[in-house]
Structure formats: C-alpha cells, structure tokens
Amino acid sequence: MLIVDGKTYELPIIIGTEGERAIDISRLLKDTGLITMDPGFVNTGSCRSAITFMDGDKGILRHRGIPIEQLAEHSSFVETAYLLINGELPTPEELSKFSAMLNEHSLVHEDMRAFFEHYPSRAHPMGILSSMVTAMRAFYPTLKDRSQEENITITFARLISKLRTLAAMSYNISRGHKVTYPSHQLSYCANFLKMMFDSPVRPYVIDEDIVRALNVFWILHADHEQNCSTSAVRLVGSARVNLYAAISAGISALWGPLHGGANQAVIEMLQEIYNSGGDVAPFIARAKDKNDEFRLMGFGHRVYKSYDPRAKIMEEIVHRLLSKLQLNDPLLDIAKRLEEIALKDSYFVDHKLYPNVDFYSGIVLRAMGIPINMFTVMFAIGRLPGWISQWKESLDDPDWKLHRPRQIYIGLNERDYVPIEKRGK
Ligand code: CMC
Predict the structure, then answer these.
(1) What is the pLDDT confidence band of residue 142, given thresholds at 50, 70 and 90?
(2) 202 vs 150, 194, 198, 302, CA distance in Å?
(3) How far apart are CA 21 and CA 23, in angstroms?
(4) Is 358 a catalytic residue?
(5) How do residues 351-406 score in pLDDT, each as one tens digit?
(6) What's the gap in Å between 217 CA and the centre of ligand 1?
(7) Does the C-beta of 366 come closer than 6 Å to ligand 1?
(8) What one-character DSSP code corresponds to residue 420?
C-alpha cells in the first residue's frame, strides 16, 4: 500500500517460484504521476525470467533449476548452452543435432579476415570482437527461404560457433600467424584450443584435462541473470535491433573492469603485487582507504553477499590444472594470501566482500596459455549462451516494452537564448 498526497494506492506483490518478492510499480506513473529513483537499478527488477536463479546471501546459482555445481561436474559447455537457450537438457539426438549445427556454422567468411588485418596492433581484442559481431550482420543476413524461427536458430548457432572462431583468428592474425580452421572432428572446446595454439612448427596436442577445464570455465560464465552486459543485451534488444547488434552491445558492456574486464584486472593486480616484492598488506590497505580509488579486483559482487559459488569451483580447477600441468604459478600464492587476509579483515567482512568468479579465473587461463588481453574475450564466449537465451526470452515476454527509463531533471530552469555577440559581456 502506498499513500501519496493522502490518497491510497494498492501495489500488487509479484512472487517468484523461489519465493522472491517484488512490488509491482508498473502503473505508478499513470496512477500517481510519480516515478521511482533507483540509481544503478540496485532495487529494480527489469523482467520476469525463467532462466537463472541466484540467491546472493546463500551463494546459490542455478540454471533452469540445475545447480551450477552439477553442471560444472557433469555437463559440457555446449550442453549447458542448449539448456539455457531451450530450457531443458537435450536428449542424445538433440545434442548431436545441435553440435552438428555448431560445426556447420563454425567457419567465418574469408572477407572478414581483412577487418582484422587493418586494426592497429594495440587494439584491444574486446573492441575488435564487438565490432566484428556487428559486422556479422552484413555477412550473414536473414535467409529468405527459412521461417523466422529457423532463422533465429541459425543465428544462435552462427554466433556461438563463430564467436569462438573469430576469437582464435584475431589472436593468430594479431601475432602474424596463420589462421587454423575449425575441424569437424573436434569438440567445441578442443577446436578452440587447436585454433588458438596449433602451429605448423609446433602441432598442438589436445589434452583432455585442459579441454575439461575449458568446458568448466565456460560453463561457470554461461549466464548470470540480469548483470550489466545481459541488461545491455536486453535493453538494446528492446529496440528490436537484430541479435548481432544486441550481442555486440553486451560485449562492449562486458569489457569494463567492474564487470568481465575484472579477470584481466585481477592478473594485472597480482602481477603488480608480485613485482613489488609480494607483500599484500599495502594493497589491502589501499583497498580499504576511502581516499584511494583502488579496489581489490576479483572481490565483491552486486548480488553475492557470501562466497560466489563459481569462485569455489574455479579455485578447484586452478589446483587441478596446475598440478596436472606441473606448473607453479607464483600469482596463485599471492591470490591465496590476499584471500586469506581479506576474509579475516573486518572491512571485507563488514562489507561482505568475497572472491568472485574473476578472482581465480585468470590463473586458469594463464595455465592454458591464453594471453592476458584475451581473458575478457574468454568470458564473452562463455556468456554468449546467456545473452542469447535472455534475448530470446525477451522476444516472447508478454510484459515486453521498449526499455526507456525516466529521470529527475536537475538542470537550469527555462531561460532565453543569448546571441553569440552578447555572450561573455
Ligand atoms: N575492494 C574494496 N572495496 C570494495 C570492493 C572491492 N573490490 N567492492 C566493493 N567495495 C566497497 C565499496 O568501496 C563500498 O564501500 P562503502 O560502502 O564503505 O563506500 C561498498 O563496498 C559497496 O560497493 P559498491 O560499489 O556500492 O557495490 P556494488 O554492488 O556496486 O559493487 C562491484 C559490485 C563488483 C562493482 C564491486 O564489488 C567491485 O568493484 N569489485 C571489483 C571489480 C570486480 O571484481 N568485478 C567483477 C564482478 S564479478 C564478475 C561479473 O559478474 O562481472
């Protein structure tokens, strides 16, 4: 119930399947002339969604009802992508059909190579990826002989398959190396590793443990309900642009260091600590200092106010992978020390700041041989099924509306235009 100027309004309560509650204010402006203010949308639900459930206090993450721990243990990235997009785990026939489609659409138009060749060598791969995805629209327009539904399914397959190919291509072209094409004999993840690292002088040998680690890495990133990049995809998509343009917006949003770019920022921070002698205390002190903009990267989350369940699984992969590859990464020791101190420190405890998915993910990527400027690209490939499924859900949403927030104007009141010759006098 809301009372404005003595008048009472009943505001309906919406209840989700996990008991989450929201006040429905969709008629507020019409009925009362008032809008709500919620900078950063901290308290705002933007849609109803049946894809992902998170409980930030309990550290729960489920996709289509299935806990992330079970998906990480038993599923593949391709299967999880199918689950997110279609709502159910695939049957064996459905999975092989989906995999065949990804194989069918894995090549990239040869003319797209020319774009890569003309980017300045210092261009960040996320900027390149975002513009390449927009460019895909020109190379892969709607197929006239197919229904709208078939066109949408083909677009999903093109995006999931080609984004991976584009990422590996951009890496090789940026190094002046030859491009390796995808192979129909390899799985989605094995194909990516082969395309990234195979060379005529040093053939890349597929290691099933690395393939498994990559599957889990991408499963852990596959969706995270209405985060910044997903909201960007839904917002841009709400103007009913084509899916390529909406995904490109998601990639741009993900690039930011407060979002997907944090995986790169974490390694840069760990490297800085390492270079300065390895003492974590000054960095903890800086993170707590209100006059210093420095934040402990890979710590904190808008929703999780306890341990991010993805971070736990990521830490397990780090240990498994480093021991399998017999690697000793000094940055892992620094990360563990940082975590140990931060989890006991009253600032981090009181602010409920725990390691998030990005804290350990960079160490996994380093062990695989992924260069640091490609880290956020790896996040983007993983998040793509989530963006697609959220976009698809928005298409059929009965509450769908063009996203158009309001504002409270705090500028100057009306005044007259001053001719240029009279200004400054
Ligand atoms: N280090 C130090 N202090 C922090 C940190 C941090 N990493 N994160 C939040 N705080 C403090 C912040 O200074 C503020 O303190 P106070 O209330 O005393 O002014 C308080 O915690 C709340 O911060 P906020 O920025 O209002 O909270 P938020 O929910 O908007 O922040 C966040 C979420 C992820 C942007 C933030 O925790 C952060 O900047 N973390 C570092 C970047 C990072 O790791 N990002 C990856 C997020 S997980 C991957 C993804 O889904 O994108």
Answers:
(1) confident
(2) 41, 11, 7, 44
(3) 7
(4) yes
(5) 999 999 999 999 999 999 999 999 999 999 999 999 999 999 999 899 999 999 99
(6) 22
(7) no
(8) G
